[in-house]
Amino acid sequence: MNQAITDRAQWISYLANQPTPILAHTQQEIRHFQSEIDQIGLHEISQLIRHDPLLTLHILRYQEEHRQTRQTTDVTTIDRVLLMIGVVGFFRVFGTLPTLENDVHAQKAMIYGAHRTCARAYLASRIAETFSHYRRDIEPKEVITAALLHDTAEILLWMASPRQMMMVSELMRSNPGMRSVDAQHKILGCQINEIQQGLVELWHLPHTLLHLIDDHYADEPRVRLVHLAVGMARHLEKGWDNPYFQADLQNCGQWFHLEPALIYNHIRDVALDCARSWHWYEEQPVAAMLIRA
Fold first, then answer.
1. According to DSSP H, which parts of 239-292 are helical?
2. Do 52 and 280 touch, CB atoms closer than 8 A?
3. What pTM was estimated for this model as a whole?
4. CA 107 to CA 164: how far, in whole Å?
5. Which among 51, 96, 165, 237 has most CB atoms closer than 10 A?
6. Residue 229: what are its φ and ψ, rounded to 5°?
7. Measured between alpha carbons, how far is residue 247 from residues 2, 7, 123, 131, 238 in Å?
8. From the centroid of its chain, how far is CA 187?
9. Distance (Å, rounded) from C-alpha 87 to C-alpha 68?
10. 22 and 160 Cβ atoms separated by less than 8 Å
11. Contacts 24+ apart (CB under 8 A), 140-144
């Protein structure tokens, strides 16, 4: 990126016009599934999609762009989109998407940042799934999708401007007490969440998802659930003894009326299961740090 971008509107306009690749491992899995199309169902495809927030974004944008005029309600989950396009339709539309790692302009910092954020998004979606069971949420797949997409703008920023994203990271490392939103304002000219909201509005993604990923409504139970899951995944990047993660456990314990130790055990199990997908992101899973916890 050669141009200097200094505010929210410019970032939204710039990112909205950039191509959105998917992860290389996602493409590899799609090709494998396509070779066994007679044995593959919508459930297997849904589980594949869930690993990749970029592919999830593609599917929701496709649904909105092909929305029928008689359709009066939003389609807010990947499962419902897949029911509408079918297995063959999925491979036809999404089977040949470009991949992040094969971009001729890809830099190590770009791939590292995007992989790390995608891995965190997947972990957040799995934590949100656990939390939705605690609350007996009537539409758990909505909060799962919202948690997966919550940091999509951050992934797009890593792809579009890894230098500035590295500057944000370095500013926070050199100023341990600095809030992430202050570092983002200093380097990017706005908060990443503001860019995220603008992109979701521009792409006309479902209003429910727009609401669930808006941290300004974190006092509402379902938004709070997404907010807690995303925050917990972010805090775990710095270790299981991170004081912010310990505070998350206390907050969740009070909210769900459960012992923090029980919540810790559930999150540990989720993290261990997520570690099975390390090859998707080629990054050390947070479960690896359990040994030092």
1. 243-256, 260-274, 278-281
2. yes
3. 0.94
4. 13
5. 165
6. -65, -45
7. 41, 33, 18, 16, 14
8. 22
9. 20
10. no
11. 141/76, 141/77, 141/78, 141/79, 142/76, 142/77, 142/208, 142/209, 142/212, 142/222, 143/212, 143/222, 143/225, 143/226, 143/229, 144/50
Nearest to 234, CA basis, from 221, 216, 248? 248
* Mean pLDDT for all residues in the chain: 91
Amino acid at 204: H
Residue type, 8: R
DSSP character string of 81-112: HHHHHHHHHHHHHHTT--BSTT-TT--HHHHH
Tokens matching residue 270: 């989720």
For residue 85, which of 103, 64, 115 has the smallest C-alpha distance?
Answer: 64
Give residue 136's region: left, alpha or beta (phi > 0; psi -120 to 50): left
What is the rounded distance in angstroms from the CA atom of residue 255 to the CA atom of residue 21?
Answer: 38
Share of the chain above pLDDT 70, in %: 95
pLDDT digits (tens, 9 = 90+) for 183-239: 999 999 999 999 999 999 999 888 888 899 988 898 999 999 999 999 999 999 999
* One-letter amino acid for residue 27 of the chain: Q
Candidate from 72-81, 117-126, 129-138 with smallest mean pLDDT: 72-81
SS3 99: strand
Which tokens go with 111?
A: 């791939």
Three-state SS at 62: helix
* 149 burial via Cβ count (<10 Å: 0-12, 13-18, 19+): buried
> How far apart are alpha carbons 124 and 131 in whole angstroms?
10
pLDDT at 216: 86
pLDDT at 247 > cutoff 60: yes
Distance between CA atoms of 287 and 273, rounded to whole angstroms?
9
Spell out a b/e string for 167-198, using b for 16 or more CB atoms within 10 Å of the CB, else e: ebeebbeeeeeeeeeebbeebbbbbbbbbbbb
Those residues whose C-beta lies under 8 Å from the C-beta of residue 162, and which sit 6 or more positions away, are 107, 109, 110, 113
Tokens of 143: 């909060």
